[in-house]
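Incident log entry.

Two folding requests arrived from the same account within the same minute. Monitoring flagged them as a possible duplicate submission, but the sequences differ. Recording both here for audit purposes.

Request one:
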Amino acid sequence: MMDYGDSLRTVLIRKINKAERDLYQLKLDYCRFVFGLSHRSRVTADQSCYQIKSVDLDSMTRTESGDWCKPNVAGILLNSELQPLGGEVIQLGNSWESMR
């Protein structure tokens, strides 16, 4: 039989895991609605266009105003017709602009 401490630990771990999942989902929603960013979105960085392949939600930090900063992203370079050139995924950091 579990004692009170083990039972409480189990409940708290379950609540922490749920809160982490909820925060992850909220950050995804924030990226989508505030930054116009989702998987396969197109962004510009260093005067080139990229198709997003990954978004690093852990890189998002709070600003002094309470907002979240832009996440680091990685993408594939696009040609002038906005078609993927293939090749490797390039880390773009957070110096990108959405092509909404």
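Request two (distinct sequence, not a duplicate):
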Amino acid sequence: MTGTDAGTGTGTGTGSGTGPEEVRCTLMRGGTSKGAYFLAADLPADPAARDDLLLRTMGSPDPGQIDGLGGGHPLTSKVAVVSGSADPDADVDYLFLQVAVDTPEVTDRQNCGNILAGVGPFAVERGLVPAGETETSVRIRMLNTGERAVATFPTPGGRVAYDGDTAISGVPGTAAAVVIEFPQGSGPLLPTGNVRDTVAGTEVTCVDNGMPVVLIPAAALRVTGYETPAELEADAALAGRLREIRLAAGHLMGLGDVEGATVPKLTLLAPPRDGGAVTTRTFIPVRCHTSIGVLGAASVAAGLRVPGGVGEGVARLGPSGDRVRVEHPTGFLEVDVRLDPGPLVVRRTAVVRTARKIFDGTVFPRSAATAPIPAQRPGGHHDSAAR
């Protein structure tokens, strides 16, 4: 079985069976997220039909996603669509889709660096990329934004190894390391062109090193930045201020109206508590992340390196070549990020993640005839979903 372009799969979403709908699927943990991985050819080519199938597969809309694969949280309701790439500089194409939990929505308006950690192993498992004898590097084109990454992971004897001694915060136990390196992005690091902007009366730094992020000193919003995610989500006044900032920042960053989008992310900054560079609380976009996304952390780390940004006086950074340890509610994530000072560009970004295959088999989506609410394709899709 081989993939096609992630937006032009030839599959029908009915598998090879003659009974109920069935689709081959691999469930994987990628970093601190969990998602369903599909070959593009196994899903409908039409984006609306694909999204309808994915909603029924994940069990949405339902707060517990009790009738599908989803885990009742945005971090466990994710999808990767993977195919061989026609681009000579990439081995595979990866389209990330966020499936909403309690609304019938699927969006492609952001990347996911955690789910990205499983794309390389999945590509080898499904025969899209041959495995090396000791390790394999997979060149990945991320269709959501056109950006690229290279994932390197162990393949002793030509088979993906998931066991290892690498621990990452937010995941119990250890696993094999997946090193993800991001080449220099094509867009500006500072989308507004400014080191600082005043947005809705609050000084922020808008940065994009793989994920559009708005950096905000926690103290500017009258919180410490050490609150639990639940405490922050329960603060109605804070939620109102964050919404105001996000909508205004979206326009400044060239993202347009972000009312129905999941970007930009908002990250509150506070001084570190556990030997890192900074403490963070990130909103995705309303719920507070229990950790931090890989691409979000890459943008935070780069933003902290920007001279004159809002991170000055909050973060504690070592020499420019050192890794930036970004603290979050359940631990930390280390990012190796290096900037050239003039003109200001990111020279290198790399992170270490882990991934694990949970199952590979056939998933049986809920019947369309018994779905609780007719699925609909929201207006937040980009054309990249159809390419």
